[in-house]
Specification:
The complex is a heterodimer of chains A (113) and B (115).
Chain A: E1 4-6, E2 11-14, E3 19-25, E4 32-38, E5 45-50, E6 54-58, E7 61-66, E8 71-76, E9 85-92, E10 101-103, E11 107-112
Chain B: E1 4-7, E2 10-13, E3 19-25, E4 31-38, E5 42-49, E6 56-57, E7 64-68, E8 74-78, E9 87-94, E10 105-106, E11 110-114
Parallel strand pairs in B: 2-11
Antiparallel strand pairs in B: 1-3, 3-8, 4-5, 4-9, 5-6, 7-8, 9-10, 9-11
Classes of the chains: A mainly beta (113), B mainly beta (115).
Chain lengths: 113, 115
């Protein structure tokens, strides 16, 4: 089982819709979770982090974490064409692997005007 | 504040040649990472360094070596390049520890082609 898995996509939504991106992880002890956005040909950039169970909102973005289910998601409300990018889920390992940051394969999101 | 700086940005190598990718950060981070990114594969961890003087293998270390020269610099070396190493390479750094403010910051990437 891969350590971090994301819904494979690609995902296409109309402008103004809600985009939902999902991620599961295998290390039950993981404590830190991150969502990055990567535009084509660019470096990943952090958009959200979450450490506690529940929801965390930042503008149009909401991250959701359920440690019991080992599941983390990102919701993008009122999606805009500028949100079209690849979204990467990242998980920091637990215990001795705390220094290790593992990424999923990413989900390509296209927002259609 | 430059953040994470990688050199070079582009490189073409012939099979069997060697080269070193350089990375430096000015954020006083303890941890540094090297990833490669291939189409449809996401970011795969090659090596990481939790602190100055330590390095550990990641998911895909074969064919690579690293050196944590000091707290700022973390280099990646290809001793004998192979076409399978054609990829985009990203260096990243982060604070060490759990929870808050441990996100990784990335360099601009190196696009490497091995022919």
């Amino acid at each position: 089982q891969k350590e971090v898995e994301q819904n494979s996509g690609p995902l296409s939504v109309p402008e103004g819709a809600i985009a939902s991106l999902n991620c599961t992880y295998s290390d039950r002890g993981s404590q830190s979770f991150f969502w990055y956005r990567q535009y084509s040909g660019k470096s990943p950039e952090l958009i959200m982090f979450i450490y506690s169970n529940g929801d965390k909102e930042d503008g149009r973005f909401t991250a959701q974490l359920n440690k019991a289910s080992q599941y983390v998601s990102l919701l993008i409300r009122d999606s805009q064409p500028s949100d079209s990018a690849t979204y990467l889920c990242a998980v920091r390992g637990s215990g001795g692997s705390n220094y290790k940051l593992t990424f999923g394969k990413g989900t390509l999101l296209t927002v259609n005007p | 504040n430059a953040g994470v700086t990688q050199t070079p940005k582009f490189q073409v190598l012939k099979t069997g040649q060697s080269m070193t990718l350089q990375c430096a950060q000015d954020m006083n981070h303890n941890s540094m990472y090297w990833y490669r990114q291939d189409p449809g594969m996401g970011l795969r961890l090659i090596y990481y360094s939790a602190s100055e003087g330590t390095t550990d293998k990641g998911e895909v270390p074969n064919g690579y070596n690293v050196s944590r020269l000091n707290k700022r610099e973390f280099s990646l070396r290809l001793e004998s390049a192979a076409p399978s190493q054609t990829s985009v390479y990203f260096c990243a750094s982060s604070r060490t520890g759990r929870g808050v403010n441990t996100e990784a910051f990335f360099g601009q990437g190196t696009r490497l082609t091995v022919v």
